[in-house]
Amino acid sequence: MSDARAIDAADWQRARLHVVTGKGGTGKTTVASALALALASATDSPKRVLLAEVEGRQGLSQTFDVPPLGTEETRIARTKPGGEIVGLSVDAKAALLEYLQLFYKLGRAGKLLEKFGAIDFATTIAPGVRDVLVIGKLYEANRRRKDGRHRGASPAAYDAIVMDAPPTGRIGRFLSVNSEVADLARVGPIHSQAESITDLLESEQTLVHIVTLLEEMPVQETIEAIRELRAKDLRVGIVFVNMVRDPLLDDVALEQARNGRLHKASISGQLADAGVKASPELVDGLLQEAYDHAHRVDLESEQLALLEETGLPLVLLPALPEGVDSGSVRELADILLDELEEVGLTR
Amino acid sequence: MTQTKETAHPAHVRAAQAAPHLDIDGMIADRGVEVVVCCGAGGVGKTTTAAALGLRAAEAGRRVVVLTIDPARRLAQALGLSELDNTPRPVSGFDTAAGGSLDAMMLDMKRTFDEVVLAHADPGKAEQILANPFYQAVSSSFAGTQEYMAMEKLGQLKAAADSAPDGWDLIIVDTPPSRSALDFLDAPNRLGSFLDGRFIRLLSAPAKASGRAGVKVFGLGVQLVSSTMTKILGGQFLSDVQTFVAALDTMFGGFRERADQTYRLLSREGTSFLVVAAPERDALREASYFVDRLQADRMPLSGLVVNRMGRVSAGALTPSRALAVAEALEDSGGPKSAENAAGLLRLHAAVVTIAQRQRELAERFSRSHPDVPVVQVPALNRDVHDLDSLREVGNALAGP
Ligand SMILES: Nc1ncnc2c1ncn2[C@@H]1O[C@H](COP(=O)(O)OP(=O)(O)OP(=O)(O)O)[C@@H](O)[C@H]1O
Ligand SMILES: Nc1ncnc2c1ncn2[C@@H]1O[C@H](COP(=O)(O)OP(=O)(O)O)[C@@H](O)[C@H]1O
Ligand SMILES: [Mg+2]
Ligand SMILES: [Mg+2]
């Protein structure tokens, strides 16, 4: 049976691999970036965080306004108390070649494999194989020590790893590499690597976070993903509610707007006193806008209530009016840090 | 007391809106239009547009079938799509006065793939294919399978429509929620050429592929490659692939050919693409790419739907003026009605600012694509998942 308990501060402390998923376009890349910044700027000691994307989208390079990331780990940002973020775009083909060199010291065969399209083949056709290779790269980074070795007393190369993961529709399959490759590659190193990866993913080192908007479809997908992930023995961490807008009317006014009971005559009078030509059309228009707004707010609170029912920690991030760039993503990171404290995961 | 003369729509902004108007009702009335494909980036409203257009066309007298891919749950319920049997079912509750009909279905990609296999292979072979783990991976999770199967289904619906004299006369197709609209055009081909690719050829018929290029050297290469693959993935894997490819090969006579066929269906007369975008930078950029691609490939484009535009109802008041007055009202510390009035003004300022930004983005698209007809659909104040709100979207599609 899976662990359906909401995470607490101790779980948060233990987590090393943060997987960020969500419906397409909800802000996975943005939230993964903000989370990496937040983790790196923890005040107790400088942190080194690896931020990796796995779909070759170059979303991170856009968010941080740096040149396109490759398969080399490259520093893309520094944070105040000496923390840093290292970016990486994990590529299955490169990972497979690296892997082959490492384990088989293939000289000629490596080239041939590429020439014959075998690398392409192995990394595209069999989705499980591709996923093993991609997550395998982060598995390796997670075990790596500062001295570059994978065992010994040297401290960990990274304090945390954040993955900008595939969307909710594919996350379950992506993370259940073990059962995925079990049917395809029944023996061999891909198979055994899948097993070690599964151990990491199911351990308390890994948390899967879900990004959503307060809209019906993303919330629906979030709830389904929570169920699916738990059934696969993966731990769901935080639900990030992204692009939240402040209600622009107070509760009383919203209530009146919703029921069409905002007092027309007195509003019209107020406007006229303040020097606005309060034509009936203008006032009706304002009331219509308030009505529309009240309904949007209702819809959003309905969705928020559904998320609250999950019992998971909810971290709300505001909609930034000018969109997100390398500057404002740090704003989101600061808000995120405050919110983590608010929901009791950090102090 | 001063009166405001500013408006929220300065003249220069209006003048720039010279994009030709997308005439949806004209398209519906044109019996020559037999297939409409709704495409665009994820989450912009493709499924909603497809359903709204289907309803409007049916109520205008067309005999419509809507192929949806991923309707929101409640929209699916409204369309009566609770039964997932991968075939169109009649929608009830619409106005049949004009003599139209409306069927809808939701694509089940795995099932569609299975059906293709069952239809083209003899029973024994079909069973062998369906049980192959490799087939199962390709048919349920290969990137591009959904697009491929959407086209396959479209082909089937079209064939059914053409063979029944009083069957469907309009097929409306929703497209899969890919991150790029172009995926819909490219994925089937990519899947086709992949399955026709060199490595698979080698595995299925090494002798044939090595050809005249010196059998010996090449043959050794093949051996080395397949022995390495066997080492990495296990022997069973390669033999599964080989059976799979051999079986499919006899069945399809080439995947690429089949992909080409479906692609041709899209460029033939009677098909029309409707590109859907949200008034956001990324979605409109996607729409641009897609429109350019359609034009480059001489595919028929009917126009762009900019969906979920912010709705301004009190257009006569500029945001800056609204904010100034709101501040004055708040400073005066008046009664609750003053507070409410200030709240309404701040809300109005926010609404107009968003709408203006959206309009500018839509105009930027039109400046670079001056000949593409456009229609703007407002964001409703609720989700679109009943026939009434679909009708409302349909009205908006038809224009002011
Ligand atoms: N809090 C926010 N405020 C304002 N804009 C935001 C916010 N979060 C994300 N965005 C914007 O929304 C868009 C989508 O965000 P992002 O690219 O992070 O989503 P994603 O889930 O990674 O998308 P995809 O599924 O395509 O990978 C971007 O243009 C981003 O700048
Ligand atoms: N004009 C609109 N007004 C309000 N909500 C809309 C509008 N168009 C779409 N929606 C809502 O947006 C969500 C996504 O729409 P959908 O059609 O499923 O997008 P896509 O098929 O492009 O992914 C749905 O919940 C739908 O109800
Ligand atoms: Mg992204
Ligand atoms: Mg859709």
TrEMBL record, chain A:
Domain ArsA/GET3 Anion-transporting ATPase-like span(s) in chain numbering: 18-182
Alphabetized SUPFAM superfamilies for the sequence: P-loop containing nucleoside triphosphate hydrolases (SSF52540)
Protein name: ATPase
From TrEMBL, chain B:
Name this polypeptide is given: ArsA family ATPase
Record-linked InterPro entries: ArsA/GET3_ATPase-like, ATPase_ArsA/GET3, P-loop_NTPase
SUPFAM superfamilies linked: P-loop containing nucleoside triphosphate hydrolases (SSF52540)
Residue stretches making up the ArsA/GET3 Anion-transporting ATPase-like domain: 34-309
Gene3D superfamilies to which the protein is assigned, alphabetical: P-loop containing nucleotide triphosphate hydrolases (3.40.50.300)
Organism domain of life: Bacteria
